Amino acid sequence: MVGMGPGDPGLLTLRAATDLERADMVIVDRARCPAEVLSHCRPDVEIVDEAEGDPVRLAVRAAKNGRRVVRLMSGDPGTGGGLAAEGAALAKAGVPFEVVPGVSSITGVPGYAGIPLTDAKNREIRIVDASDGDVDWERFAAPDTTLVITGAENAVAEVCKSLIAAGRPDSTPAAMTCLGTTTEQETVVSTLKRLASAAKGMEAPALIIVGDVVGWRDKLSWFETKPLFGWRVLVPRTKEQAASLSEQLRGYGAVPEEVPTISVEPPRTPQQMDRAVKGLVTGRYAWVVFTSTNAVRAIREKFVEYGLDARAFAGLKVAAVGEQTAAALVEFGVQPDLVPQGEQSGEGLVREWPPHDEDLDPINRVLLPRADIATDVVIAGLTDLGWECDDVTAYRTVRAAPPPAPIREAIKGGGFDAVMFTSSSTVKNLIGIAGKPHNVTVIAAIGPQTAKTAQEYGLRVDVMAEKPSVSVLAAALAEYGAKRRAAQIEAGDPLRKPSQMRRGARRRR
């Protein structure tokens, strides 16, 4: 019986992750379980939705057949979960079980709302389950006691009136947080007198906190104040390329969605690459230039095919067009000799490339493995410097298949808050396979050329990186989001994401 936390999949415990990896069957409410939680399971695990039958009967039958079962529960099994009822039924059936506590919504949600349940003056916490409506509120009237109330989403006015009638001052600070620890979290802060009207329309599940500790939120709110909190950001790159970028965006509070716009495929005639690798090993080249992470991957795959490793680069100088490509080389075991310190592009690389010197460089040949549609900027620049280039097609880039219909509709209908364009081809391909982003969507471009392409397609570019780096672009988008939020606060406007600016969108209070 495993607690999976109140919503944020990052709150899953190490023990819970280990048990999921070992499970033969997982029984869970699929609608309330983040996909990231189930990603810890083996590919052959059987996942059963608790709606398919009585969870205890399903667990007992599987366990008696020798299978290891994980019963996943929201929050913590012993705090608002089903430990008491389901644990007793398992014990009656003679099935041994273990309990893996999880982060409870009782503590997790207030923590994400920036509200400590105790402080130097308030040392007592009372937890109230108001779901059945039969509560003796006079027992909870003490003014120095923090109340955490669950199950009252549809009875906020009645709860507040009952507490006031029981003796709590109507000026007592009160807060309500819905969808806690998720990127849809929303918190309103008010008093017992006004909380019902302030929280009108909030979604379930929600939790009410009553007491002076609510006053800490102004100083301690850390989650909902992230610069891109709740922003749905489209990342039009391949899954491998998007991983680190998506992680950075999550750190800013965003919800990244990776939509591949290109598919990377082997060259139609691999013989050219075979000859290039042979020449690389036999000393034909003085330099190897990598202009993308895909080129690094293509060479690496060829090395594996021939039983080679990074030692084959011994005696060669290696150049990388930018920090992402350099990182891919380092992961391969190759430390690049040249990475542009200024503009990280083909032009920037050429500007810092040394001219050929016949005395110092007896070999003047450079290997350039790249895409079939790459430009000739690097070749032209190196040729002018006296180098001879072998331009080899290491991989082909083809337009990816269109994304699912809901993604296409969100792009065109303003469902995304921002789109990050990391090259001119991502602009062309995304519009080609999914349509043009809505005019409320924030457009972020990695550099001037990408921005120019976006503008040619009629897009308004809101954010541009100071240098062509995906990490710098993500930071620039976060800065834009922070300034936008600060401007809304200063103007006294409701905090609204870009997607909420379109006609008919749900507006956050």
**How much is the average pLDDT?**
91
The major pleated sheet works out as: 5 strands, mixed
- Order of strands in the sheet with most strands: 5-6-9-7-8
- Cα shape: elongated
Structural class by helix and strand composition? alpha/beta
Estimate what percentage of residues fall within beta strands.
Answer: 15-25%
Supply the number of helical segments: 18
Identify low-pLDDT runs: none
As a percent range, the share of helical residues equals: 25-40%
The N- to C-terminal Cα distance equals 38 Å
Number of DSSP-assigned strands: 19
Radius of gyration from the alpha-carbon trace, in angstroms: 29 Å
Describe the structure.
This protein has helices spanning 14-22, 35-38, 55-64, 83-92, 105-113, 156-165, 195-198, 217-220, 239-251, 271-282, 293-306, 323-332, 346-351, 377-384, 405-413, 424-434, 448-456, 470-491; strands spanning 2-3, 25-28, 46-49, 69-73, 124-129, 145-150, 173-178, 186-191, 206-210, 232-235, 255-258, 262-265, 287-290, 317-320, 365-371, 388-399, 418-421, 442-445, 463-464. By secondary structure, it is an alpha/beta fold. The strands form 4 sheets. It has a 5-stranded mixed sheet with strand order 5-6-9-7-8, with helices on one face. α11 (293-306) packs parallel to α12 and α16 packs parallel to α17. The longest helix has 22 residues, at 470-491. The two termini are 38 Å apart. The model has no long low-confidence stretch (mean pLDDT 91).
Labels describing this entry:
five-stranded parallel β-sheet; alpha/beta; 34% helix; 19 strands; 18 helices; elongated; single chain; five-stranded mixed β-sheet; 509 residues
